[in-house]
C-alpha cells in the first residue's frame, strides 16, 4: 500500500502507511525488515528501520539475527543492503558511534607510541 501511495502521490495515505509500518516494527522482525528489498527503495522507511534496529540491538535475539544477516550480505545475497550497512557502521566526523550531532563520551583513540 505504501508503494502505491508513493507512486500515485497520495501523501496522506503514504503518511498513514508509514505510521502503520513504523508501529509494526518489532524486535522479532526488525533485522529482516531493515535489510528487505522494500526498505531499500524508501530512504525514510530505511532510516526508521535503522533507528529501531539500533534502539533494540540489545534485545534478546536481535544481535544474533543481525550477525546472521550480515553473513548474508557478505556472501552477496543482499546486494540492495549497502546503504543499511553504511548507516550501521557510520563513523561520523563528530565522533565514533554518535548520532544527530551528539558528541561521544568515548575518549579519542590514540595509536600506541613506539
What is the tally of beta strands?
A: 2
User: What is the percent of helical residues?
Assistant: 55-70%
Shape: globular
Which sheet architecture does the biggest sheet show?
2 strands, antiparallel
User: What is the structural class?
Assistant: mainly alpha
Order of helices and strands: HHHHHHHEE
User: Please, what is the average pLDDT?
Assistant: 86
Spatial strand sequence of the major β-sheet: 1-2
Strand content: under 5%
Q: What is the radius of gyration? A: 17 Å
- Helix count equals 7
Distance between the termini: 60 Å
* Unreliable stretches: 101-111
Structure description:
The protein is mainly alpha-helical and 114 residues long. It has a domain at 27-89. Helix content is 55%, strand content 4%. The protein is built from seven helices and two strands; from the N terminus they run αααααααββ. It has a two-stranded antiparallel ribbon. Strand 1 and strand 2 (95-96) form a beta hairpin. Helix 1 (2-8) packs antiparallel against helix 2 (11-23). The longest helix has 13 residues, at 11-23. Residues 100-114 have a biased composition (Basic residues). This is F-box domain-containing protein. Residues 94-114 are annotated as: Disordered. It comes from Mycena chlorophos.
Gist of the model:
The chain is mostly helical.
Please supply descriptive tags for the structure shown above.
F-box domain-containing protein, 114 residues, mainly alpha, two-stranded antiparallel sheet
Amino acid at each position: 500500500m505504501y508503494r502505491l501511495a508513493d507512486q500515485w502521490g497520495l501523501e496522506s495515505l503514504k503518511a498513514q502507511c508509514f505510521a502503520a509500518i513504523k508501529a509494526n516494527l518489532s524486535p522479532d522482525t526488525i533485522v529482516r525488515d531493515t535489510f528487505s528489498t522494500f526498505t531499500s527503495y524508501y530512504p525514510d522507511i530505511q532510516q526508521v528501520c535503522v533507528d529501531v534496529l539500533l534502539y533494540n540491538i540489545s534485545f534478546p535475539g536481535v544481535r544474533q539475527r543481525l550477525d546472521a544477516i550480515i553473513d548474508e550480505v557478505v556472501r552477496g545475497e543482499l546486494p540492495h543492503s549497502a546503504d543499511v550497512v553504511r548507516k550501521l557502521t557510520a563513523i561520523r566526523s563528530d565522533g565514533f558511534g554518535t548520532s544527530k550531532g551528539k558528541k561521544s563520551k568515548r575518549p579519542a583513540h590514540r595509536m600506541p607510541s613506539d
